[in-house]
Amino acid sequence: MKQKQFRIILFLIVMLMGSGSSVAILVGSPALAISVFLAGITVIYLLKNRLEEVVEDERVHQISQKASWITFQIVIVSFALGGTTLIAMRNTYPGYTNLGFFMAHISCAIMVLYGLLYMYYNREYGG
Length: 127
What we know:
Radius of gyration: 21 Å
Keywords: Membrane, Transmembrane, Transmembrane helix
Helix content: over 70%
Number of helices: 4
Distance between the termini: 40 Å
Order of helices and strands: HHHH
Low-confidence stretches: none
Pfam families: DUF2178 (PF09946)
InterPro entries: DUF2178_TM
Number of domains: 2
Number of strands: 0
Mean pLDDT: 91
Protein name: DUF2178 domain-containing protein
Structural class: mainly alpha
Transmembrane segments: 30-47, 67-89, 101-121
Largest sheet: none
Shape: flat
């Protein structure tokens, strides 16, 4: 199977998974939603095994690394600022204080995880 065919089929599978999950949520059946998700993942996995070899070079990995780093920074800053804002507005909107603390804790946890993984891979690859 060619890369273009795989992408088209993948798009259709994701659309079917979304519509199946929507129906499951409307019906109120979490078992159906989970089974739709697992079936979709299984079909994608089986199709990925039939995919012809894709050539990747260092440029593709470097672009992916830069995109991941920028995404990481945006998510961390958004969670930290959003959490701080919600905590600061606790007198006006007391219902959102827990969400603010959750966002702040998640941003801290992600930064700690990043630091630990950085130390591990730095030691692993002799940095």
